[in-house]
Design brief:
Elements lengths: L9 E6 L8 E6 L7 E11 L3 H5 L17 E8 L11 E4 L2 E3 L7 E3 L8 H9 L9 E5 L9 H12 L7 E5 L4 H12 L3 E6 L2 H10 L6 E5 L4 H9 L6 E4 L10 H7 L6 E4 L11 H6 L3 E4 L5 H12 L12 E7 L3 H10 L5 E6 L1
Bound molecules: NADP nicotinamide-adenine-dinucleotide phosphate (NAP).
NADP nicotinamide-adenine-dinucleotide phosphate binds next to α4.
GO molecular function: oxidoreductase activity
Protein name: Alcohol dehydrogenase-like C-terminal domain-containing protein
InterPro entries: ADH-like_C, ADH-like_N, GroES-like_sf, NAD(P)-bd_dom_sf, Zn-ADH-like_protein
């Protein structure tokens, strides 16, 4: 593998100069590894369904411009900083889009998407790790070498771990038919749980039931808008230990939040990972009387990445078709627009789109 001075001086990258103009392909300087970082050659970078709404500004996420966009990716280490003792050029790695400060892990940001909520996270994004994966090379913080494309699975794992989901327990996942909701079903099954999947669309629920790896441990309950009736249908599946919420902003006001909380057993747990923009009313009296515990989660912890790999290595969690995943399209960097459109149109559980710079 190339040493630092063998890296090309320039590279091809997608550059967002401002949210009011489309990105362009540019030739830019190749990043250089410094103490605490590595430069990786990006092999395949993930595309999330709302990618175009991030970079046209309609999601209103805070990030500096100009910026090389992107999210999690699979890459090979090209060069490492002088203090690396484990990572080697040539290692196959998972480029995690969640970046944390070395000296204060609460300074955390979402690479090239959101600068996070602290002055430290904004500084780290703006001044050090601004550019990301839609380029031939990317500068990344050095961490342990990881091997796969697992970003969708990691997100729900963060929340499911918080609520201590255990083998044999029952968890409601709602809504379960989007990319992250579907991933939550797959991860909960891999953790040994039984899942009650909720969604408005009966066809999407039927598709989910068909592609999950453990059909006998998945039940579906449609969200009908009748909160009490949906709660009664949930309860028909026996004692329910936990509820994992991953509603999009569009589901603000959906009845599923109340139905699911009301269906929980005494001492049940709730993970709130949904992207609601407004406050969400909750059944306070039931939460108080039943000793329910509510956890919020943004993304996942660093240790969760290692846990997910253990689930993969043990065979409990599977990638590819066997694990309910479908690659919808692979695009070169120049076809970024087609990739973003394909991702927006393929927002069903398990579907993914990649950019190969
Ligand atoms: N906390 C975090 O760190 C984190 C990380 C990633 C994502 N998120 C949030 O998670 C959300 C969900 O992600 P996703 O990729 O699974 O799905 P998505 O593509 O954002 O949304 C589609 C899902 O939402 C459901 N839905 C849409 N409108 C609804 C409504 N009005 N009422 C009830 N359900 C509705 C759909 O179900 P139907 O089949 O009924 O249409 C489908 O399950 C994202 O929008 C994001 O805000 C949070």
């Amino acid at each position: 593998m190339a040493s630092s001075n063998e890296l090309p001086r320039t590279m091809k990258a997608l550059v967002v100069k401002s949210t009011s103009e489309p990105p362009t392909i540019e030739t830019v300087p190749t990043p250089q590894a410094t103490v605490g970082s590595a430069v990786v050659r990006v092999l395949a970078a993930n595309v999330v369904s709302y990618m175009k709404n991030i970079y046209n500004g309609s999601r209103n996420y805070a990030f500096p411009t100009p910026i090389i966009p992107g999210t999690s990716a699979i890459a090979r280490v090209a060069t490492v900083g002088p203090d690396a003792t484990k990572l080697q050029p040539g290692d196959l790695v998972f480029l995690d889009c969640v970046v944390r400060s070395r000296d204060d892990p609460s300074d955390v940001f979402l690479a090239a998407i959101s600068e996070g909520g602290t002055p430290g996270s904004a500084k780290l994004m703006r001044e050090v790790y601004r550019d990301w994966a839609y380029a031939e090379y990317c500068l990344a913080p050095e961490s342990d070498p990881y091997l796969a494309h697992i970003s969708a699975l990691l997100v729900p794992y963060g929340g499911l771990k918080d609520i201590e989901l255990q083998a044999g327990q029952t968890v409601i996942v709602a809504p379960a038919t989007g990319p992250f909701g579907g991933a939550a079903v797959i991860v909960a099954l891999a953790m040994g749980a039984r899942v009650i999947a909720m969604g408005r669309n009966k066809d999407s629920l039927a598709r989910l039931k068909k592609i999950v790896p453990s059909t006998d441990r998945v039940h579906t309950v449609p969200i009908t808008g009748d909160m009490q009736a949906d709660c009664a249908k949930l309860k028909k599946h026996g004692e329910i230990d936990a509820y994992f919420d991953i509603g999009p902003r569009e589901a603000q006001g959906s009845t599923h939040i109340h139905s699911a909380i009301l269906a929980l057993r005494q001492g049940g747990r709730v993970s709130l990972m949904g992207g609601y923009l407004q406050d969400v009313p909750i059944p306070h009296r039931i939460i108080m009387r039943r000793n329910l515990r509510l956890y919020g989660k943004w993304m996942y912890e660093r240790s969760d990445v290692a846990d997910i790999f253990k689930l993969l290595e043990s065979g409990m969690l599977k990638l590819g078709a066997e694990g309910g995943a479908e690659l919808v399209g692979k695009f070169p960097l120049e076809q970024w627009r087609e990739a973003w459109d394909a991702a927006a149109e393929s927002a069903l559980m398990g579907q993914s789109v990649l950019i190969k710079p």
